[in-house]
Amino acid sequence: MTPNLTAESLAALVTAIKDWGNELGFQRVGVSGIDLVQHETWLLAWLAAGFHGEMAYMARHGVKRSRPAELVPETVRVISARMDYLPPMAAEPWSVLRRPELGYISRYTLGRDYHKVMRQRLQRLADRIAAVVGPFGYRVFTDSAPVLEKALAAQAGLGWIGKHSNLLDRSAGSWFFLGEIYVDLPLPPDEPVTAHCGRCVACLDICPTQAIVAPYQVDARRCISYHTIELQGSIPLAFRPAIGNRIYGCDDCQLVCPWNRFAQVAAEADFRTRHQLDAPDLLKLFAWDESEFLRRTEGSAIRRLGHERWLRNIAVALGNAPQSPAVIAALQARLAHPSALVREHVIWALERQTG
């Protein structure tokens, strides 16, 4: 840790960090301690229930996720930052969900890969700190390591964890990314805010697959985002009809949340919609070969899905679409696809279309 920092200078540093964060495009910045005992209890219970499904990485690092100093030795504080991502000028989400010939892609991934944007800005923030205090111990994270980012952000006063398990802010809803800087500086922490979900259960009621099994508890094995993004293999038959036309992620619990009436569109140019994927035609997407998929998703978080699972997801959406000769022809054209995973979902979709 950098020596000779008084309580007064540390408090002034926090104020400066928040100002620098705003200059770098973050809407809010806060500081938290590293005591996550209560959240660790919830994490271990969630893992014990098997709610993480096939996401083995959730359990692989043990309690490093809830004990920052075990992940990064000497850490005593965490700087949390948030950046709004709701893309401006994008098609209205419900209008896309109501049109089964279109594909719905979660709003967070319509622009540039947030990992790159957030990590670069957080690194610049760390550089600003170092320019003032000298060399210090730190590490930057953006959904890239075993970090309880929502718990840390809540303790830093950036919002509260809602019943859908997302972080909520009264003035900004939940359409924002989170990132962290683990530091060895004993910065004065911010105060958490109170929760304001009240008796509202709109997110539980709207979930197409009832993945929010209880307030604050999401069973990933039922979640459409898990099935369309994280799951490597076959999407369970029981959940395919409920997926509808959602081909990458699901935003329903955020769309219905009353607090998102106050959400702001992203000021960050990198989060503007690319390649008109806010309301894309399913048949056109299904016709992409792998090279076109890679070209169209360059710089996007969608690319990590891979072309095979991209076709898997779209096949399910086409199976849920109204019967159409054009849809049937497109599916039949993929019956000889080299991937057994793709063929399985195409056959299911064809049975739905011709049944």
Automatic annotation (TrEMBL):
All residue ranges annotated as the 4Fe-4S ferredoxin-type domain in the record: 188-217
UniProt GO MF annotations: 4 iron, 4 sulfur cluster binding; cobalamin binding; epoxyqueuosine reductase activity; metal ion binding
Binding site for [4Fe-4S] cluster 2: 207, 223, 250, 253
PROSITE patterns referenced in this protein's UniProt entry, alphabetically: 4FE4S_FER_1, 4FE4S_FER_2
Binding site for [4Fe-4S] cluster 1: 197, 200, 203, 257
Pathway: tRNA modification; tRNA-queuosine biosynthesis
Main localization of the protein described in the UniProt heading: cytoplasm
Catalysis: reaction(s): epoxyqueuosine(34) in tRNA + AH2 = queuosine(34) in tRNA + A + H2O
Residue ranges that the Swiss-Prot or TrEMBL entry lists as coiled coil: none
Highest taxon of the lineage: Bacteria
EC number: 1.17.99.6
Record-linked PANTHER family: EPOXYQUEUOSINE REDUCTASE
HAMAP family, A to Z: QueG
Subunit details: Monomer.
Protein name: Epoxyqueuosine reductase
Organism field: Candidatus Competibacter denitrificans Run_A_D11
Name of encoding gene: queG
